[in-house]
Design a protein that fits this description.
The complex is a heterodimer of chains A (76) and B (90).
Chain A (H helix, E strand, L loop, with lengths): L3 E8 L12 E5 L15 E4 L4 E3 L8 E8 L6
Chain B lengths: L3 H11 L5 E3 L4 H6 L2 E6 L2 E6 L2 E5 L5 E6 L7 H16 L1
Classes of the chains: A mainly beta (76), B alpha+beta (90).
Chain lengths: 76, 90
């Protein structure tokens, strides 16, 4: 496990809470376009220390666990 | 999207030891298809699905849990252990 790097991704939307169902006229249901066995698209993200991290930096070095987490510090 | 400053404060608050990353422009979320859009009244609001993704050293996706399936991280952690053991065996 030591060689596995865990990346937590904190992602919050601009709005504080999901809309009530009755207010939603149309929703676009997101489907992950990727599947197991696909090459993971490279990305660059900002760390909490304002440095950039690229997925490709870990190529050949570490496995990556990416947790996409929305509004982590709220009750939602 | 949460800013790096907000993430830093949160990491300090709960003592996180791994990097917290921000996708401020939603680029990564879009390319992975994780961004979900809702049309409410006349505006579209977007936010991310919850997801756990495990990518091996070769850059290949080995596991995807999304939505409610991503609440429990144990499946993803098991995959990490399996990959680590595979790597150690080589």
């Amino acid at each position: 496990m030591k060689r596995t790097v865990a990346l937590g991704l904190l992602l919050a939307a601009a709005i504080a809470a999901p809309p009530l169902a009755r207010q939603v006229h149309k929703s676009q249901v997101a489907r992950m376009t990727l599947k197991v066995g696909d090459p993971a698209p490279d990305f660059t993200l900002l760390t909490d220390g304002w440095k950039t991290v690229k997925l490709s930096e870990f190529r050949g070095k570490k496995n990556v666990f990416l947790a996409v987490y929305v509004l982590a510090f709220t009750d939602g | 999207m949460d800013s790096p400053a907000a993430n830093a404060a949160f990491a300090k608050q709960i003592g996180i030891k791994f990097p917290l990353l921000s996708d401020m422009n939603g680029k990564m979320l879009k390319s992975y298809g994780i961004l979900k859009g809702y049309d409410i009244e006349n505006d579209t609001y977007e936010w991310a699905l919850r997801a756990n993704i495990v990518i091996d050293k070769q850059g290949i996706i080995q596991l995807i849990d999304e939505g409610d399936g991503a609440v429990d991280p144990n499946t993803a952690l098991s995959m990490c252990t399996t990959l680590h053991k595979k790597g150690a065996a080589k």
